[in-house]
Automatic annotation (TrEMBL):
InterPro entries: CMP_dCMP_dom, Cytidine_deaminase-like. It holds the Pfam family dCMP_cyt_deam_1. Residues 4-121 form the CMP/dCMP-type deaminase domain. This is tRNA(Arg) A34 adenosine deaminase TadA. It comes from Nonomuraea soli.
Length: 143
C-alpha cells in the first residue's frame, strides 16, 4: 500500500532523478527515509561520471544502510526510488536489511519509454564440481 506520505517522498526521488539529468548523469534518483519518515540520505545514478557499473543510487544507498544502520532500524527504513530496482540493486537491498522499497516507474514502463534499457542476458552453466566447491563453504560455515 502506498500512502500520501509515500507519494511525497517518491516525488522527492523523482526530483533527484531530474536533478541528475541537469548534472549530466542518468535520470535515476533514490532516497532512504527512516522509521519516522525523515530523509536519511539521497543519491542519484553516477554510472557514467564514475565509470562504475555499480553506481546505481539504489545500490549506493543499500551499501550505506548496511554500514550505517543497525538491523532493527534498517528493517523499518524505506527506500524511495524513481524506477524499480534492477537485479543487482535488489540483491543489495535485500542484503542490507532494508524493510521496504517504493518505486515510481516499473521496469516494463522504463523499457517502453527507453527500449535501449533492456539488459542482455548471459549464458550460465552449472552446477558443477559440487564436492570440490563445498569444501570452502563447509570450512567457513562450520568453523
Amino acid at each position: 500500500m502506498i500512502t500520501a506520505a509515500d507519494e511525497k517522498l517518491l516525488r522527492r526521488a523523482i526530483d533527484i532523478a531530474a536533478q541528475a539529468v541537469t548534472l549530466g548523469d542518468a535520470p535515476y534518483g533514490s532516497l532512504l527515509a527512516g522509521p519516522d519518515g525523515e530523509i536519511l540520505i539521497e543519491a542519484h545514478n553516477t554510472v557514467r561520471r564514475d565509470n562504475d557499473i555499480a553506481a546505481h543510487p539504489e545500490l549506493k544507498l543499500a551499501r550505506w544502510a548496511a554500514r550505517e544502520l543497525d538491523e532493527r532500524t534498517a528493517a523499518r527504513t524505506t527506500m524511495y526510488t524513481s524506477c524499480q530496482p534492477c537485479g543487482m540493486c535488489i540483491g543489495g537491498i535485500v542484503r542490507s536489511g532494508l524493510g521496504r522499497v517504493v518505486y515510481a516507474l516499473a521496469t516494463e514502463q522504463l523499457v517502453a519509454l527507453n527500449p535501449g534499457s533492456v539488459w542482455p542476458t548471459v549464458e550460465q552453466y552449472g552446477p558443477a564440481l559440487f564436492e570440490e566447491a563445498r569444501v570452502p563453504i563447509d570450512t567457513y560455515y562450520r568453523s
